[in-house]
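Anyone else keep sequences and structure tokens together like this?

Example one:
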Amino acid sequence: MTDLTKDKTKARKDAFARRKTAHAASGKDAAAHLAAVLARYRGMPLSGYLPIRTEIDPLPAMAEAAAHGPVGIPVIPGPDQPLNFARWTPDMPLVDGPFGAAIPAEPEFFEPELVIVPLVAFDAYGGRLGYGGGFYDRTLELLRQRRPTLAIGFAFDQQEAESLPLEPTDQPLDMLVTQSRVLNFNGTGAPQEP
């Protein structure tokens, strides 16, 4: 195991503990800032995610956005592949998909221009630590080669880390939304006020 792999494993373990505590204390309006951000991009094809474990819940903001344009959720086609995105609407029938993730019973695929990205930890410069499968990194790299694609991390404040062990293949976030704030990142990775 390389030092970077060990560092990422430790960073994930620490972040999962912080996220669990934040999730237990979270209120019902955790997605209020996310909904306000998404309102600026009404009608733009976007993808969110169905929360698992202790992830912050984007569903209220996604439901609001679905009234104005296409909203999708990720579908994992297989290991080491970019994600696909299937159109999602509130209350649509879902089935178990690959890797146990719920997906639409009859998926209608499209490419989003805005991706709400789940994460384990983030830093103040747009860095993101995911679960380690590289799905979002591969996907964002592919989408960004085709067109401008906005990556918005969504997390609890407590998931912030002072620094993260990052690799050149880790795709940066353009914006980070928490239950209390919004961080925008410029091309140098420095935070900017919304």
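And example two:
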Amino acid sequence: MGRPSRHDIDRLLDVAAELVAAGGPSAVTVSAVARAARAPSGSIYHRFPGRSAMLAALWLRTAERFQEGFLAALNADPPARAVQDAARHVVTWSRAHPDETQILLYGPADFDGANWPAEARERLEQGNGRVTSALRGLAGRLGRDEPHDVERLLLATVDLPYATVRRHHRSGEPIPAYAEDLVTGCAAALIAETAGGTTTVPR
């Protein structure tokens, strides 16, 4: 049985994630990753055809790791709780994975998305499609089927939680312990149903 490669793909992508956290996507080059990983440049090119493919692999690995828990939360029952759990997941995951969170605070375009290999672009579309489908399904389970209802859920479960995370990451401050409660409260308020002038927040 052969020995495992000293410079496997996950190790190289971990190094690339550290470079993003320190200097942004532009800091990730083949030579920089090779130097930080103490690997020959040839070992990078053996695993990735070029920088664009490496950046694609880094973005997709990060997004798919995040989406695993996020999709599970969106698909949970009861639906009102699913909204809050999805918002909470954004904050909890971000606190536990600070380097990877820095990646998601950018976007595919910042990782040379226009030059990704076709297979990587297809994976990106599939991942986005799974999230959109889950949001639509959740909207339906909440009895809300208008186009703006999905936008409302996106705001509640992604935009507002990430705004909270981004503010602390950009300032270099740790995400406070109360952040989960803050974003779940906002998420609940956004999907609250109004009846007779009284707003009922799901618990």
